Amino acid sequence: MPDHGPGRYVEYRHPIRVGPGAIDDLDHVNNAIYLMWMQEAVNAYWRKTAPPEQVAHRHDVVYHRPAVLHDLIVAVVRVIGHQGCRAHFETRFERNGEDVAIVESTLVCIDRGSRQLVRIRPDLAQHFYLRDTEATTASGAMR
């Protein structure tokens, strides 16, 4: 896996408005909703970058503070590494610049036709990393 250093990955920002269906009986966003949002945001990033292979998921979620009705949450998705057929993502759910929840995910590329694992090729992986010119302009937006 190429080492591009911390903060060298392209971010994909996916805005989400918290609606009534996301709120549980404790009046904040239900844990299962974060997983749904994360999958939606990561899949949108993947579709923007990758060929139409399928992916399988594994997720680890850390909650920092509740999100409530009508909050504007932004899912910030970035690849934090890749090797072979696996890509490791971090999805940060932010509200006004503060972390609400963080999900670490591993996606495994699977060919739609053969149902076999597919290695992440360099032509795909190049989209995960900032180019030197982007790093200077995006450095303020990177974590």
How are the SSEs ordered, and which strands pair?
Elements: E1 11-17, H1 31-49, E2 54-63, E3 72-83, E4 86-95, E5 98-110, H2 122-125, H3 132-138
Antiparallel strand pairs: 1-3, 2-5, 3-4, 4-5
- The percent range for strand residues is 35-45%
The amount of helix comes to: 10-25%
Tally of helical segments: 3
Largest sheet: 5 strands, antiparallel
Q: Give average pLDDT, whole number.
A: 79
Structural classification: alpha+beta
Shape: elongated
- Number of DSSP E strands: 5
- Strand order of the biggest β-sheet: 1-3-4-5-2
Order of H and E elements: EHEEEEHH
- Unreliable stretches covering 5 or more consecutive residues: 1-6, 133-143
Could you give the distance between the termini?
21 Å
Q: In angstroms, what is the radius of gyration?
A: 16 Å
Overall description:
The protein starts with 10 loop residues before the first strand and ends in a 5-residue tail after the last helix. The protein is of the alpha+beta class and 143 residues long. 24% of the residues are buried. A five-stranded antiparallel sheet has the order 1-3-4-5-2, covered by helices on one side. Strand 4 (86-95) and strand 5 (98-110) form a beta hairpin. 21% of the residues lie in helices and 36% in strands. The protein is built from three helices and five strands. The longest helix is centred in the N-terminal third of the chain and has 19 residues, at 31-49.
